[in-house]
Design a protein that fits this description.
The protein is α/β, with parallel strands linked by helices and 397 residues long. Helices cover 56% and strands 10% of the residues. The protein has an eight-stranded mixed beta sheet, sandwiched between helices. Helix 4 packs antiparallel against helix 5 and helix 8 runs parallel beside helix 9. The structure holds guanosine-5'-triphosphate and magnesium ion (MG).
Length: 397
């Protein structure tokens, strides 16, 4: 039908039935709007469908990629409790800085080993008894002590038995592995209290680095968010109290002190009382340097220890002996003598940066079975760090 015919028919129908034109036009407009509405709705639905399909495909692809990698992991059920990370690893840049400090701190010891050992091994057919004897002497000279040098040499003999012309690098790597094994077997967790103060008593002979180690430790603990109280129980040496006070001001922690010449046991007693009252995390007690062969000074240490336990029965929770690596063989005698009177629970080995006698760390650990808690490779606060057998052995040889 032509459009003109349709319009003609429409007019005749309208006029015949007496219908209002405006009503018809309104009905047509509503119908048109409805049709347009339907078209728009259909269009939106289609585009949503497309989006969901894209997302579905994307997630399938990601899942496939994950399952293709070797570290593929199943999704963890939300019902499974997530274990808290026990020990926060230091940031990578911080760890890198420490490793380079450790490496350069131990350079004197390492260079001595490297020069002497490589000279001995170079050009030798195998590790015969004469070569092993020479190696033994070098280890002994680096203050590893006879027993520990014996252990390392026996291990080299077994490892390289029948090996023709062993490479210096292989011998060195074997020494690293064995030293790490010796050190690791004596390590344990320090007895830090989950609740209430942990009391740490620091002892040692004169000038080994007790007070500076306490300052460095306090700075570290505080940076980890722990509250720290210092206790100046070295009432003997002139300016010892001021030295600790300077640290407390520098790092912003409190200090318990009496006058110079007062009874160190009574300062320690007050220190524990204050630590309990203020509920600090750590009480670090500095003591006077005492020669290990002076009986009355060693007896005084026994008295300090007894007093600490009066208000806090388990205190001191840790007793750390500071030894100076530069003193070499003398450090062995100090560990023996202090262990007899004060049951030492850990060692702080300082001044590893100034010596070629870094072997003392392995030797003392092996001989006395006491864990190494911290090592110092310089005078800055960041130069004292928790001991790690693997890192240490890797830098030693
Ligand atoms: N190079 C180096 N020096 C250190 C290290 N640890 C401590 N010292 C220095 O050793 C010196 C003695 O340190 P102190 O902390 O006073 O030693 P101390 O054991 O408290 O001494 P007394 O209280 O007199 O018995 C200071 O000059 C420290 O800076 C270290 O790891 N490396
Ligand atoms: Mg001191």
């Amino acid at each position: 039908m032509k459009l003109s015919d349709f319009i003609e028919k429409y007019w005749s129908f309208i006029e015949k039935n007496n219908i209002d034109h405006e009503h018809v036009l309104l009905a047509l407009a509503v119908l048109g709007l409805l049709i347009v509405g339907f078209i728009i709705r259909a269009f939106i639905k289609k585009s949503k469908l497309n989006k969901t399909t894209i997302q579905k495909v994307e997630s399938q692809t990601t899942q496939k990629l994950r399952s293709d990698t070797p570290q593929a992991q199943k999704p963890v059920s939300p019902k499974v409790p997530i274990e808290p990370v026990a020990v926060a690893e230091p940031p990578i840049s911080d760890r890198k800085t420490w490793l380079s400090r450790l490496h350069s701190g131990l350079s004197k010891t390492r260079d001595q080993f490297a020069n002497s050992l490589s000279q001995i091994i170079q050009g030798k057919g195998n590790l015969d008894s004469e070569t092993l004897e020479d190696l033994h002497e070098i280890l002994f000279r680096a203050d590893l002590g006879v027993e520990t040098a014996d252990l390392l040499i026996d291990d080299l003999r077994d490892t390289f038995k029948g090996t023709d012309s062993p490479q210096w690098e292989d011998v060195r790597n074997r020494l690293k592995i064995k030293a790490e094994e010796i050190l690791s077997k004596n390590q344990n967790e320090a007895n830090f209290q989950a609740k209430g103060p942990t009391v740490v008593l620091i002892v040692g002979v004169n000038g080994v680095g007790k007070t500076t180690s306490i300052g460095k430790l306090a700075a570290q603990y505080m940076s980890e968010g722990k509250s720290v109280l210092l206790c100046a129980a070295d009432t003997y040496r002139a300016a010892a109290i001021e030295q600790l006070e300077t640290w407390s001001n520098r790092i912003g922690c409190d200090i318990v002190k009496h006058k110079q010449g007062s009874d160190p046991a009574s300062v320690a007693f007050d220190g524990v009382k204050a630590a309990i009252a203020r509920n600090v995390d750590a009480l670090l007690i500095d003591t006077a340097g005492r020669l290990h062969n002076k009986k009355e000074l060693m007896d005084e240490l026994g008295k300090i220890k007894r007093v600490l336990g009066k208000d806090l029965p388990e205190a001191p929770h840790e007793t750390w002996l500071a030894i100076d690596a530069t003193t070499g063989q003398n450090a062995y005698q100090q560990v023996g003598a202090f262990s007899d009177v004060a049951s030492i629970t850990g060692l702080i080995v300082t001044k590893l940066d100034g010596t070629a006698k870094g072997g003392v760390v392995v030797g003392v650990s092996n001989k006395y079975g006491i864990p190494i808690r911290y090592i110092g490779v310089g005078e800055k606060a960041a130069d004292l760090r928790e001991f790690n057998p693997k890192d240490f052995s890797a830098s030693l040889f």
